[in-house]
Structures are given as C-alpha cells and as structure tokens.
Amino acid sequence: MLQLWRHRLSVSSCLHCYKSFTRRLSVTEWRCAVKASYLHYPGDEPLSPLTTGQLVEKAAEQWGDREALVSVHEGVRFNFEQAKQQGDRLAAGLIGMGLKPGDRVAIWGPNTSQWYLTFVAAARAGFIIVNINPAYQTSELHYCLAKVGVKALIAPETFKTQKYHEMVMKIAPELQTCAPGQLRSENVPDLTSLIVISDNKLPGAYRFRDVMDSATPEQLTYIQQLQSEINADDGTNLQFTSGTTGQPKATLLSHHNTVNNVLLFGKRLQLFLKEHRICLQVPLFHVFGNVLGLLSAFSYGATIVLPSASFNAKESLKAIQQERCTIVYGTPTMFVDMLTKAGESNYDTSSLEMAVAAGAPIFEELVKQLRKKLKLKKFYIGYGMTETSPLSFASLSTDPIDKVGTTVGYIMEHVEAKVVDDKGKSVPFGTPGELWIRGYLTMLGYWNDDKKTEETIGRDKWLKTGDQFILQENGYGKIVGRIKDMIIRGGENIFPKEIEEFLEKHPDILEAQVIGVPDYRMGEEVCACLRLVEGSKLTTEQVKEYCKGKISHFKIPRYIHFLTNFPKTVSGKIQKFQLQKIIIEKEKLSAENRPK
C-alpha cells in the first residue's frame, strides 16, 4: 500500500525573478509500507537548461544597474552590467593568450574582486575554473596544477605570509627567464601562463589588468558567440576535496549541477522577494562561497559583499553595518567568533534578516544566541558536499529553531535520498546508516580518477556520501557523524556528533569536538575538546558530573581538554585529525594502539 502526502509551494515559473509567492512549499513523497528510508522530492518546477555564462548575461539584462559586488576591503564596487563587461574582457584576454574552452584556469588567492571576475570570465569563455586553497604551500600547489593540467594560473603577488610568485617559481624555475605566456616546464608541462594580481612586472608573468586591457573587439564578439555553444552538461568547476588523509581529489561539477542547485537553494531562501545584500564571509575557493554565494547572486540579483580578504569577525560586523547587509553566510565556527566580537562593541546589525550556515552542523543554543544578539529573523542550515554541487538538504523558511538546531534541513527538490546499512540495503526511517544521494546534483566525477569515481558513484548512479545519517519520514535529516570518525570503544560504536550535541547544551560550553584516541585496553577512548564561553571556570570534574546519568557511561569522555581555538581549514572546517595529534601528544598516548 502506498501513502501520499503534500505540503505545497508554488512561485512564478520565471527562474530568475519570482514576482509572486502565493502558496506554501510543496513536497510529494511516496513511501512503501515497510517504511524503508527512501525519499524522493520531485519538485514542482522543471530543472533549468542554463549555463553559468547565460546566468551572468541574464543578470546583466535584468538588474544591470544594481550593485553586483562590493569588496569592502579593496574599496571596489561594480554593478551587474559592469561585472559582465569586465568578466568578458578578462575572458577575451585569456582567449587571446591561446586558451580554449575546456582549458583549466586556476585561481589561487583570497576573496577579492579579481577572484570574482575570474569566476565570471571562466564561465563566459567555457573554461573550467580550478579553485585552489590560498593557504596551500608549494608541494600542494604543484599537486593541484599537475593533477588537472592547469594551463593558466591567476594569483596575487603576495597575501599575508604567502609569496605566491616566488612559490610558483620554485615549481617552475623557467619563469625566471621566459616571456609571459611562454612557460615550458618539466615539472608542470601543461602550465603556459602565470597571471599575477599586482602593479609590479614580475619575471615570466602577465599582470592581471594587462590581460583585461588586451581584449580586442573580435575576441569580445567571440565570447558572446560562445554562449550558445557551451553545453550545460560541460564541466565548469574543479574543486579539490579537503583531503584529511591522502591527496585531495578533484571534483568536477557541471553547469547543470551548480546552476540548478543554486536556483533551488535561492527558492528555499525566498531570495526572489527583495533585493538582498549578502555578507559573504566564507572563502570563494570553497563550493559554499562560489556556488551558494556568487551563483545565487547572479540567479536572484543579490549583491555580494566581501568584508575582508579572509575571515575576520570584526570586519564582517563592520561590513554588515556599513553596507546594510540582509543576509550573512558562515560556518558555525565563524558565527561563534562573530558573537564574541559583537559583545565587545555595539555594532548595528538591524538590517540582517537571515543567516545561512553550512560546512558543519550547528547547535540549537548557538542559533538562539545569534537570533537574539544579531537580530536575525530567520536561520537556515544546509547540508551537502562538494560532490553534490553542494546541497541535498536545507532548511525551509517556516522551520522553527528546534528544527534548524537539530536537523540539517529538508530534502531538496529533484533529489533522491536513502540510508543504507553496510551491505547497501535500505534501513527503516529513523535508523542510522550511510546516506546515499541521486539526482541532477551528483558530480561528473573525480578528474582522471575512474577508480575513486566508481567507488563513490555506483552503476545505479547512487552517490555514497560517507556520512552516518538518520532520515526521517517527514523529509528531514540528521547527521550522526562521518563513518570514518566513528569511535569503537571496547566493541561499542560511538558517534561523536551525539556527544557533541549533548555537551553543547551546557551553558558554559561554546563548542565541543569529540574524537577517539588510542587506548591499550579499550582500543579507543572518548576525548572531548571544548571551547568555553568567556570567563567560564568550568572544570574537567564538572563536565563529567554533567554527563553522569544523562548519557551512557561508555560515552562519557575519559579525556577532556579546554582549548581557545580549534585547528581549522581555510574554509572553516574543524580538522579532527589535527586535534587527535594534539591530544595524543599531550597525553603521551601510543598511536600504535589505535585500531586500523
């Protein structure tokens, strides 16, 4: 017997500017009598056939005079028409250097107007943009350039302690003597051009502004002609996974993947209701920043505000006040830091209407504090991964705080999801297992890595997320943890996320990260690393007393460490493997005893 239920949304069929919002959000779900945890949300509107470059063009036509980008730290502003024009000039200049559609163009640097324009130029010329973490060192950069065959690399001369031009010369010393665009290096044979964002003329490198100035009318005409030739199923973006172990994989996403994901995401946020200004704190090299950030702006006419080149909570609050931002994007850790800084000075955040968190689950108490102190009306949480372009679950506009703080949101439109056991068999709703995703949003694959691609996406097109997940009958999901992060203590399977959520309910605990550390007798023991609210005197004994009688005895952390900061990636994700190294060293634990 099949059961059908509805909860409905309808908006104008225009994909770029919904002018009416007349009915409520809709989902149609069929589920079988055995209630296996499978959901399919077909949506009530078709997917879009547009490419990223076509989105840019439509934005220029529809919102030409509206501000597209405000880079506060650079003092740069331009509207949607100027964004298209400058992006086309850069695209044409790159074509003039010998690049062709399908070539890989890498951008290595922090959040700047040049990053934004490189994104636009790659989309308009049909290049595949390669996002490189600005914190990468020489060996990591070399790996990325060689892995995907980058032909042109764009980077600032320096940023903070990073000396980008010098680092590239260590990989390709031939830059010292070659003319710009004429690089021939044994170490990176595909790389022919280095473009430096600088006023200085550096060995072997073009200047960014010179490439833009070199565009000819014929090349600009060619860029316009390409808009009808680029296929929505072509690759548009190569994103390197975080790679906590081993070398990172290069995830190839298509226009169809990312354009549709962001159109549906913006619909969830109701971005069509007004002219929004988004304070974008997250790095542009990350899928959160460039897809959910830049693409959402082109899809719905929102203004992107870059408060700083890299995350700085104080600068974000100042930008929100100065630019009257209505939305702020961030990871949970970023929001914690914002709350701390907001308490130090009296910032006016009354313009804020909503916040969007992704990159890690958020806890309910933090949502409450943000709504209270930053005057937020709505809070959205999104769940996904680079390989799913990225979102497969996200909050609904009507979700109460307890839904936002205890789930990862509601299944996205045009997405199938199921939770399976270690044999690939669906488990009942409400039962933990591995989340699998299928639909338009799954990546094209890992670049030049058929084996890893086949391990991740089966012949049935289900993508294995590696996340331990609970799927609920009402369409919401909950992360239990990464399967590889599961702690096995004396035969008991322990999921860190459950303990983290419990600890974060304590009024003195700002953030909790739970890891497994080696133990001779039990195999692994539970360790909790805690960030406390300012001024707290919480002790180890008090934490353990708080746990007694409320969680199972085997889940009570044996080791408790109080830290002021957690090691993080540039995109704001906590590096648990680094925490493990720190604790193992502090406690003088034997890593050899950790089960393989």
Major beta sheet, strand line-up: 7-6-16-15-17-18-19-20-21
Strand content: 25-35%
Number of strands: 31
Q: What portion of residues is helical?
A: 25-40%
Mean pLDDT comes to 89
- N-to-C CA distance: 45 Å
Which shape, going by the Cα principal axes?
globular
The largest β sheet comes out as:
9 strands, mixed
User: How would you name the oligomeric state of the polypeptide chains in this document?
Assistant: single chain
What's the helix count? 17
Radius of gyration: 24 Å
Low-confidence stretches: 1-33, 591-596
Q: Indicate the structural class.
A: alpha/beta
Describe what this molecule looks like in 3D:
It is a single chain. With 596 residues, the chain is α/β, with parallel strands linked by helices. The chain is built from 17 helices and 31 strands. α11 (332-344) links the parallel β17 and β18. The longest helix is centred in the N-terminal third of the chain and has 17 residues, at 80-96. The chain is globular and about 75 Å long.
